[in-house]
Design a protein that fits this description.
Layout (H helix, E strand, L loop, with lengths): L1 H8 L6 H10 L5 E2 L3 E4 L8 E2 L5 E9 L2 E8 L7 E4 L6 E2 L4 E4 L5 E4 L5 E4 L13 E4 L5 E5 L4 E5 L7 E2 L11 E3 L2 E5 L5 E6 L4 E5 L20 E3 L4 E4 L4 E3 L9 E5 L5 E6 L6 E6 L15 E4 L5 E4 L3 E3 L9 E3 L17 E6 L2 E3 L3 E5 L4 H10 L5 E5 L5 E5 L5 E3 L6 E7 L26 H13 L1 H10 L12 H4 L2 H8 L1 E3 L1 H7 L6 E5 L2 E7 L5 E7 L8 H13 L8 E7 L2 E7 L6 H5 L13 H21 L14 E3 L5 E3 L41 H16 L16 H14 L16 H14 L9 H10 L18
The protein binds 2-acetamido-2-deoxy-beta-D-glucopyranose (7 copies).
Length: about 800
């Protein structure tokens, strides 16, 4: 038996670690027969070690004088358990014992002799005598019959919170951590479930997406998944998750964690710590059950929970218990349920609660929606979305709350008329209290805020992120909202007549620019607001009026600091025009390239370049992932990235390609190609269905151009031929591997740049140019760029900056 162990240790290249492991392992076995045991006092010695030493099994300390019998990665710093026998029943640190009996049962006994856990394999029949137990190199603890070579029991059949490479995940297995679990649902889809004391719901794949939009299928009923040694997690529902460090020879695990997220990790052999290489949910607030009832999960600057206005934490120590109201809205089961006129609503902007819709109405005005909630006793709040048709959700219970500047709707909380929610209770955040509770008494204030929202983009964002403002009682609900969505549209988003715009632009005198989608003129509206008016080219104006109006109402609602705001439109027979916010500093190409050929292009400083890259990524991420409608830009290029006076990026011309609705099947078919040569993803030419990854590709090109300072198309080989894409990616791969980004960065910066940021940009650009299923999402990209955002402006450009993978 020791022979096998020794061969495992005679690998050709012996590192210090393997030597150590072998020294350690030589005191332990990987296979044992019946009659062996280990007492907890001898816990320094593992019970079994796998032949190559990767895994050990034995006692692990899980608390003060509390121990579990587990399998763990020998080389991990904290002995990360991958399987545990007695997960919920730790044993005493004195007198406990694990034994493998002569009749083939593995059993764990507590100090007082109580059997805490057994493999239930003993005493089945006399023929079973001679069973052995071994710890496999895969981390599988196996009881087998050496005579028939059959497996009697294996730990891989009883996973706890972790799946190891090659461990099959089937319809009968489940990974569990607290209230969270991963398993195949009845419809064959692999899902993450929150199964809390009060409520249960699936949260991954995201419930707002259809199965197909989430990239899954429910047709394959084999219900099997596995993580392989390369770092790919494949499931029969077509889920394909890849670690960012794809490759063999890395120790990996897939674990559902206490926060409800499912993550893949790689073991760093030098630090012996774990590096996250993939996660199911990119935004932690998308996990259900985090903040409990009436709680709201918020993401910025980091994850935290808040209570709804007028609520306080139920249990100071536990957010899962949620928040309780400091008022009563009466008991609906009683005959004397309070009459509707005793309630008012408090608006909680940019917030949504998932689930518990007691009714859903389409094509109603805000006022009708509010009245429906008032009349329905069980309705505790409603959400109303200006979705072209006005969608109204009446909420019963408020669970799974999530606030984000990217959520387009608001929640209107029903509260008694006579209570004054002047100082909302927000646990643990005293310094922010002053921004809460501003109660605009008059609607002009509200309108004022709205009017300035676009202009003061940043202020707006801060305002929204840091506080809700309140509309107390009926009369302070702004008149615009009172009369339904059409008028709301009208207040921030207008339909102009041709005459209006002709006057505003002085008969289309001052041309700001032109592109394939049309010519842009400068204009001044009555009241003095400077705007950009775009006369749409013929191919965009083929649509009928109805269709045009529908699309415009969608575009009018899109509001993000990195997207050019649309103030309105004009549609009169052949005249189709859009009225945009005026952005002072022209487009990125004019700052980056020598557009006019006169060497006038001003050099953008590095910090501005990074800011533009980040802003563009965020704007696109918003278009792709966050808003109610899902918009593919289809023509991402420097010409469509406008810059403010402070060099913040604002993407223009989005939505001119067809809009694709979220509830349709993912992907859009275009009748003809869009986009601009040099920025177009290869799949345009392949006649494939187009998805958001075309923007990711184009963004990669733009990102690279920001670093390089010239058009990628203009790059030449030494012999003067245009560089082909494979050559470019090859060069980038070399740069990422060698860490020498200096040679690539725009020479006009004279070395004044941040090499870590530049390297990250190159790395991202490279992944954007890959085959489309391997490209990251804009969300991933925005996250990666944000991670490098608060760097020093120009750290010394020492060559030791390596690849940042
Ligand atoms: C690992 O152990 C170190 C020190 O023993 C501790 O600081 C760290 O929090 C542990 N990490 C985890 C993930 O438990
Ligand atoms: C043995 O100890 C455990 C706690 O360590 C306790 O729950 C159990 O009741 C005890 N059993 C007996 C038979 O005393
Ligand atoms: C043990 O691991 C080897 C590969 O290391 C594999 O071929 C074998 O099937 C495993 N045995 C069990 C019972 O899992
Ligand atoms: C893991 O799966 C991927 C995708 O199917 C495949 O390309 C790769 O070769 C697999 N690796 C191993 C070690 O089987
Ligand atoms: C179902 O999924 C399994 C595992 O991924 C695969 O082997 C099988 O071919 C699939 N069946 C169908 C009908 O697609
Ligand atoms: C392991 O961690 C060290 C220190 O954080 C890092 O320098 C190294 O690149 C890591 N190795 C791998 C393979 O991730
Ligand atoms: C809203 O929907 C409910 C059913 O969900 C229906 O009873 C009610 O009449 C609808 N109200 C309006 C105004 O459409």
């Amino acid at each position: 038996m020791m022979a096998g162990l020794v061969t495992g240790c005679l690998a050709p290249q012996l590192s210090l670690l393997t030597l150590l492991l072998c020294a350690f392992a030589s005191t332990a076995q990987h296979t044992m027969g019946g009659g062996s045991s280990l007492s907890v006092e001898d816990r320094a010695r593992p019970f079994l070690v796998s032949p190559d030493g990767t895994f050990s099994c034995g006692f692990l300390q899980v608390g003060d004088n509390a121990f579990s019998f587990s399998v763990w990665f020998t080389a991990s710093r904290n002995s990360t358990a991958v399987w545990t026998a007695n997960r919920y029943f730790p044993v005493n640190g004195r007198g406990s014992r694990v034994s493998f009996t002569h009749d083939g049962e593995l059993a764990l006994a507590d100090a007082n002799g109580t059997m805490v856990w057994t493999s239930r394999t003993g005493g089945v029949s006399a023929r079973r005598k001679g069973l052995t137990i071994s710890l496999n190199d895969t981390g599988n603890l196996v009881i087998s019959d050496p005579f028939t070579s059959s497996t009697v029991w294996q730990s891989f059949d009883w996973p706890t919170d972790t799946l190891l490479p090659s461990q099959p995940f089937t319809k009968d297995t489940k990974l569990v951590n607290g209230y969270y679990s991963l398993n195949f649902d009845n419809d064959n889809v692999l899902r993450l479930l929150y199964n809390g004391p009060d409520v249960a719901s699936f949260y991954w794949p995201l419930p707002s997406l259809s199965i197909y939009e989430a990239g899954r299928t429910n047709y394959n009923s084999s219900r099997i998944a596995a993580l392989n040694n390369t770092g790919v997690f494949l499931s029969s529902d077509q889920l394909q998750a890849q670690a960012i460090d794809l490759g063999l020879g890395i120790k990996r695990r897939l674990t559902i964690e206490h926060d409800g997220n499912l993550r893949m990790y790689s073991l760093n052999e030098s630090t012996r710590g774990w590096t996250e290489t993939w996660s199911a949910l990119k935004q932690q607030c998308q996990v259900h059950g985090i903040c409990g009832r009436n709680g709201i999960c918020e993401y910025q600057p980091s994850l935290r929970c808040l209570c709804l206005p007028g609520h306080e934490m139920t249990d100071r120590g536990d957010w899962r218990k949620g928040c309780k109201p400091s008022f009563s809205i009466g008991d609906c089961t009683q005959e004397c349920a309070p009459p509707p006129e005793q309630f008012k609503f408090v608006r909680v902007p940019q917030t949504d609660f998932y689930g518990f819709d007691i009714a859903y109405n389409k094509s109603v005005t805000f006022e009708q929606c509010r009245d429906l909630c008032l009349r329905m006793c069980q309705c505790s709040a409603f959400s109303y979305r200006l979705d072209g048709v006005g969608i109204c959700y009446l909420k019963g219970l408020l669970f799974n709350g999530y606030t984000s500047p990217n959520i387009c709707g608001s929640i209107y909380l029903k509260v008694p008329l006579n209570i004054d929610i002047s100082a909302p209770r927000v646990a643990g955040l005293v310094c922010r209290h002053n921004v809460y509770g501003t109660t605009p008494r008059n609607s002009w204030k509200w309108t004022y805020l709205f009017a300035f929202a676009g202009v003061l983009g940043i202020v707006d964002l801060l305002f929204i992120v840091t506080g809700w403002w309140f509309l107390s009682s009926k009369q302070s609900i702004p008149s615009a909202l009172e009369s339904g969505y059409r008028k709301v549209m009208a207040s921030q988003f207008r339909r102009f007549t041709y005459r209006d715009l002709k006057d505003a632009t002085g008969n289309f005198k001052e041309e700001l620019g032109h592109g394939r989608s049309g010519v842009v003129y400068r204009g001044v509206l009555v009241g003095g607001r400077v705007v950009a008016v775009k006369k749409l080219a013929v191919d965009v104006t083929m649509q009928g009026d109805e269709e045009f109006w529908a699309e415009m109402t969608v575009l009018g609602r899109i509001n993000h600091i990195n997207l050019v705001r649309i103030w309105g439109f004009c549609s009169e027979r052949k005249h189709k025009m859009l009225v945009y916010e005026y952005v002072e500093n022209q487009s990125l190409d004019r700052h980056l390239f020598d557009v006019d050929g006169d060497g006038k292009a001003a050099t953008l400083a590095w910090s501005e370049r990074y800011k533009i890259a980040l802003g563009t990524a965020r704007g696109l991420a918003y278009l792709h992932h966050e808003c109610l409608e899902w918009v593919i830009h289809c023509d991402v290029k420097p010409e469509n990235i406008l810059l403010t006076r402070e060099f913040d990026a604002k993407i223009s011309d989005f939505g001119l390609a067809k809009l694709s609705k979220r509830d349709g099947v993912s992907g859009v078919e275009f009748s003809h190609m869009r986009g601009t040569l040099g920025y177009m993803a290869p799949e345009w030419a392949l006649n494939l269905r187009i998805n958001a990854k075309v923007d990711v590709y184009s963004f990669g090109i733009v990102l690279l151009e920001i670093v390089v300072g010239s058009r990628l198309q203009d790059q030449r080989t030494e012999t003067g031929e245009p560089l082909q894409m494979p050559q470019i990616t090859q060069a980038l791969r070399y740069i990422v591997d060698s860490g020498d980004v200096m040679s690539l960065v725009d020479a006009r910066l004279q070395g004044q740049f941040n090499p870590r940021q530049a390297m990250e940009m190159v790395r991202i650009a490279l992944t954007c140019m890959e085959e489309r299923s391997s490209r990251p999402t804009m969300d991933d990209i925005a996250k990666s760029l944000t991670a490098f955002d608060d760097e020093d402006e120009h750290p010394p450009t020492t060559p030791e900056y390596g690849p940042t993978l």
